[in-house]
Specification:
Length: 219
């Protein structure tokens, strides 16, 4: 099995505004893992009113602690740990990216009840997973930064929970600034979903706009 840590963390073509300026360490990744544990445990629970009130107070205390360490979005680590599955973002499914070539990418993902629709993966989660893998491929191999223009997902069969699913992506064509990608998700041999995606390479001024937006946002 290929470790995702063997992949390049940053594509040099990606704009600087997204580059984390704080070095993440494993304690931060562990914090996000703990948050994932909370999300799954809360989702699976039916606490008594007293237990719910106690847990809510504890979680609000954690939020208070974290607010005292607040940084701006350019500096935050969440979602930017390209070297670890799930990128240290608690909403993102933990996608293990095994291979990325110039034109293909593969990964594996297992979701729990936090990401469940009902006894199967929620229909909004599948696009999150495809977007992650297809975007990684679209913006790899030194290609300049592109943004998702569309992601057309077909749900072919229920995607089971607590079960490893494989995800594949392929760059199927390029026309000027447009990159066409295709992806699929499998449970064993069963196709559970497939996707057509378009990534459009940003013009330089579009990258600057992003940068300005980031600088101008409220903290
Ligand atoms: C919950 C979990 C979270 C996980 C953790 C995440 C944390 C991440 C943290 C840190 C990461 C750092 C990195 C982050 C970066 C994020 C990037 C995104 O997420 S992208 C978000 C979604 N996508 C948008 O919001 C695009 C919005 N749309 C646009 O910006 C524009 O529409 C854009 C750039 C896609 C195209 O606009 P134009 O003005 O540049 O170009 P025009 O001329 O309109 O199109 C060029 C060609 O593409 C076709 N085209 C454009 N859109 C199309 C469409 N929807 N369908 C078909 N064709 C389309 C056009 O027809 C045209 O084709 P012809 O050249 O004429 O052949």
């Amino acid at each position: 099995m290929t470790e995702s840590t063997t992949l390049d963390i940053w594509n040099p073509g990606w704009p600087d505004p997204f580059r984390p300026t704080v070095d993440a360490d494993d304690e931060y990744a562990d914090l996000v893992d703990a948050l994932r544990e909370v999300q799954e445990a809360v989702t699976r629970s039916l606490p008594t009113p007293e237990a719910a009130a106690e847990a809510a107070a504890t979680l609000r205390e954690v939020a208070r602690q974290m607010r005292s360490h607040e940084v701006d979005e350019d500096t935050q680590i969440a979602g930017k740990r390209w070297d670890i599955p799930g990128k240290a973002h608690a909403l993102a499914p933990v996608l293990h990216i095994d291979t990325v070539t110039d034109t293909t990418a593969t990964g594996r993902v297992t979701v729990g009840r936090f990401h469940s629709g009902r006894y199967a993966m929620n229909g909004g989660v599948t696009p999150l997973i495809f977007d992650e893998l297809l975007a990684r491929l679209a913006n790899s191999a030194g290609r300049p930064w592109g943004r998702t223009a569309y992601l057309n997902v077909n749900f072919r069969a229920l995607a089971p929970l607590h079960t490893e699913l494989t995800v594949t992506a392929e760059l199927v064509g390029q026309e000027g600034r447009k990159r066409f990608l295709r992806g699929a998700m499998y449970h064993g041999d069963i196709l559970v979903a497939d996707v057509d995606g378009l990534w459009v390479e940003l013009k330089p001024e579009q990258t600057q706009n992003i940068s300005k937006d980031l600088e101008g946002r409220d903290r």
